[in-house]
Amino acid sequence: MKKYQILLIIACLTITNAAFGQSFKSSYSRAIGVKLYPSAISYKKFHKSNMAFEGLGYFSLDGFRVTALNEKYMAIDGTEDLSWYVGYGAHLGIWGEKGNANKIAGIALGVDGILGLDYKIKNAPLNISVDWQPAFNFVGPSYFETGWGGIGVRYIF
Predict the structure, then answer these.
(1) CA–CA dist 61, 69 (Å, integer)
(2) Residue 55 within a domain
(3) Peptide bond into 125 cis (omega under 30)
(4) Which domain holds residue 38?
(5) What predicted TM-score, i.e. pTM, was given to this entire model?
């Protein structure tokens, strides 16, 4: 059953990727900052005019989680610096026992999706985004997570 779910996800991503044109061109190429709720360090780099890689590092007192995402950006008609994006990726999380972060209590490995809005502030080297990042763990707590994502603020360089 899991094989069919994975094949279905890959097929949907392929169709989604082919369905959208490449007329969008980002107004920035690299940005670094934070994403709030849950707190993360965010690095975004466009590798094509409408495709970006985003790396996220979530840190807490009992562990960490790293996420890598590939995002496709599309223009919103009638707006200059506002776009929407959709993408996919993977995550790895490791956390320790409560009160003893040196002893590993769990590992999470899974896939992520992302859907959001991205705004480049005019005449300022800042980018703001808001997104939803659902995830599914294959290793560790094997369940669907809906609480990732949030508001991102990045410095453009």
Answers:
(1) 24
(2) yes
(3) no
(4) 23-156
(5) 0.82
